[in-house]
Amino acid sequence: MSLTESQIERYSRHIILPEVGGKGQEKLLAGKVLLVGAGGLGCPAGLYLAAAGVGTIGLMDRDVVDLSNLQRQVAHHTPDVGKPKVESAADKFRAINPDVTVRTYRERLAAANAPAILRDYDFVIDGTDNFASKFLVADACHFAGKPYCHAGILRFDGQLMTVIPGKTACYRCVFNAPPPAGAVPSCSQAGVLGVVAGVLGTLQAAEALKFLLGKGELLTDKLLVYDGLKANFRKISLKRNVNCPLCSESPTITELRDEAPAVCACARGERC
Amino acid sequence: MRLFINGEAAEAPDGTAVTELLKLRRVSQPDMVTVELNGEILERKTFDTKVLKEGDRVEFLYFMGGGSR
């Protein structure tokens, strides 16, 4: 693949970086990244990946755009309310950069569809909004051998970690299993400052770009914790857990299964 | 004794176990936190019996699920 004149101009601020150059830009154009979730994290991640010229972006989400999404899900605009999120976001990604092929999957990631979808991608970004999905992304990437970047956000806080399956600490090394239903509030219950989604989603995109370029150090064996109120970032060192149910030498999870979706406390008749 | 909790120095009575520390730190729902002690993730079933020592480095790692909706 060689860059056209228009591509050399479009990506000139990348190409001038010694760590990227023309070769690196070609790697990005050949790269394939799957976004699981086209919401608060997936929108900023996808906008930057599209702008960066990541050649293939997969976009997976079952929901439609709701008015309450627009405070943080920056690829969806007011006229998009009611449209499938994957279509709304794909339109914006294509408008930013016609070099990018956007593939849309209007479905939820599940044990049944994950292996076939993940197979095609180099890197996965977890932009899901619930623990059943977060653990499924972790497990699916483990079994498919796909590197991925986890992020979670709540109120003014966020967290991030990148996982290279079988080599670095995984999500289950830290968070063994989904928390009991109702123990952890969701953003819809507890709120989230919109920009926190932008901070964490953009960091996920940075991890994907570094992975595709093969440059820098990935955020592996570390949990990055962001405190938006204090403008504080901390990196906590992690090790692979010898008791990990997924990636230890004697795992208890040996095949991909759907986690039961957590039942919100209000669904059990309690107040959230 | 002096501990380092989430990177900051903090005092706790001698003989404090992890479960007690969670209470002292007003972690109202211990189910929503993973505890790392001196770089190792602790198994939840040891929280009651694991007694902390002077200089221990404790990290509370919270479940954070949001992202999409």
Topology:
The complex is a heterodimer of chains A (272) and B (69).
Chain A: H1 5-10, H2 12-15, H3 21-30, E1 32-36, H4 42-52, E2 56-60, H5 85-96, E3 101-105, H6 114-118, E4 123-126, H7 131-144, E5 148-154, E6 157-163, H8 171-174, H9 187-190, H10 194-213, E7 222-227, E8 232-237
Parallel strand pairs in A: 1-2, 1-4, 2-3, 4-5
Antiparallel strand pairs in A: 5-6, 6-7, 7-8
Chain B: E1 2-5, E2 8-11, H1 18-24, E3 33-37, E4 40-41, E5 57-62
Parallel strand pairs in B: 1-5
Antiparallel strand pairs in B: 1-2, 3-4, 3-5
CATH topology of chain A: Rossmann fold
Largest sheet of chain B: 5 strands, mixed
**What separation lies between the terminal Cα atoms of chain A?**
54 Å
Number of helices of chain B: 1
Helix/strand/pairing category of chain B: mainly beta
Shape of chain A: globular
How are the strands of the biggest sheet of chain A laid out side by side? Answer: 3-2-1-4-5-6-7-8
Query: How much of the sequence of chain B is in beta strands?
Result: 25-35%
Mean pLDDT of chain B: 92
Counting structural domains of chain B, the number is: 1
Going by CATH, the architecture of chain A would be 3-Layer(aba) Sandwich
Query: Given the C-alpha coordinates, what overall shape of chain B results?
Result: globular
Tally of strands of chain A:
8
Helix content of chain B: 10-25%
Q: Assess the beta-strand content of chain A as a share of residues.
A: 15-25%
- The CATH C-level name of chain B is Alpha Beta
Radius of gyration of chain A: 18 Å
Uncertain stretches of chain B: none
Gyration radius of chain B, rounded = 12 Å
